[in-house]
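Example for tutorial group B:
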């Protein structure tokens, strides 16, 4: 694999060692220290594209770039909301980005096509889930996970509805560029098209689980999978309110901290239900923090890709990037 020559700093590296934005450099140093890079890269190195060069260093052919460099680059793209072309440009331009990624000043910069191929390798090997789980275990060992219950929420990530191509299929129906795996749903009388991200969060704001589905799926459809290992409490809004679910959680010894909603024939909530809802809402609101952070700082409101698998990979990697930033913030307090 392509690595920096001899692992030593070149004259160019030494010449710019004191340059670069100090605030960005300090932030990236903090984030880098929060990530177990070697553990995250280990399953990537086992892929055939890398393993064959590890097993036979003299093997001829173009060697892939060090996957740790590539993974660091993908995290930069997430934290700074960069497309692949923008990431390539910033790596060529910003000293702090090159230093964080492990690229020396004389090293060639990965181009946008290289990022696309690397992402595909991870996606095809389903390593997004492995990276997410490995990072979560690391955060748990660091004592950053607060096991006081699981907060469940869902968010619609919109996809373009496409446009008509002017052609028709065999049945005479007009063909469109719409993503066939995305779905429609209605919320507050507004129709949305896209996918839905179902997320489990601990009470510190770290995401502990994520599932991706078509937007057509109801919020409550995936909660049971997300909380199957929870032993303390489950916090959720009224969309997850279901008598059978409450009973099942109680039978497991889990507190069903779910917002009550009126049932058929009930004019208004009972006073005790209103009080319960106010108490639950204080903790449940923490589950909104990851979505708010990603929307505000990463512009994560719309799908970047077509298809469920491509977008699921992107969502999971986005959550992983969020967890790293959140963990660094928690460790500093």
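The residue assignment follows.
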């Amino acid at each position: 694999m392509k690595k920096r020559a001899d692992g030593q700093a070149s004259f160019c590296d030494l010449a710019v060692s004191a340059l670069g934005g100090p605030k960005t450099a300090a932030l990236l140093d903090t984030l880098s220290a929060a990530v177990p890079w070697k553990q995250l890269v280990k399953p990537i190195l086992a892929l055939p594209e890398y393993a064959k060069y590890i097993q036979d260093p003299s093997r001829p052919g173009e060697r892939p770039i060090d996957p740790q460099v590539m993974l660091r680059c993908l995290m930069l793209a997430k934290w700074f909301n960069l497309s692949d072309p923008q990431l390539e440009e910033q790596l060529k331009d910003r000293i702090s980005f090159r230093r964080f990624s492990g690229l020396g000043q004389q090293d060639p910069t990965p181009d946008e096509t290289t990022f696309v191929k690397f992402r595909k390798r991870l996606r095809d090997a389903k390593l997004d889930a492995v990276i997410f789980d490995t990072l979560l275990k690391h955060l748990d060992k660091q004592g950053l996970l607060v096991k006081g219950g699981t907060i469940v929420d869902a968010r619609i990530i919109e996809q373009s509805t496409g446009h008509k191509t002017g052609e028709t299929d065999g049945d005479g129906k007009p063909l469109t560029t719409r993503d066939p795996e995305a779905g429609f749903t209605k919320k507050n009388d507004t129709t949305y098209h896209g996918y839905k991200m179902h997320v489990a969060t601990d009470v510190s704001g770290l995401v502990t689980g994520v599932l991706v589905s078509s937007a057509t799926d109801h919020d409550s459809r995936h909660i049971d999978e997300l909380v199957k290992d929870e032993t303390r409490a489950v916090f959720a809004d009224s969309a997850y309110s279901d008598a059978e679910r409450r009973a099942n959680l109680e039978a497991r010894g889990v507190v069903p901290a779910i917002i009550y909603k009126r049932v058929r024939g009930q004019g208004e909530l009972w006073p005790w239900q209103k009080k319960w809802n106010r108490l639950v809402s204080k903790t449940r609101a923490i589950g909104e923090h990851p979505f708010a952070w990603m929307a505000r700082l990463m512009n994560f409101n719309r799908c970047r890709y077509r298809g469920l698998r491509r977008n699921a990979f992107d969502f999971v990697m986005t959550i992983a990037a969020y967890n790293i930033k959140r963990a660094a913030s928690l460790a500093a307090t």
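The two ends are 39 Å apart (CA to CA). Compare this with the pattern of hydrophobic and polar residues in the output above.
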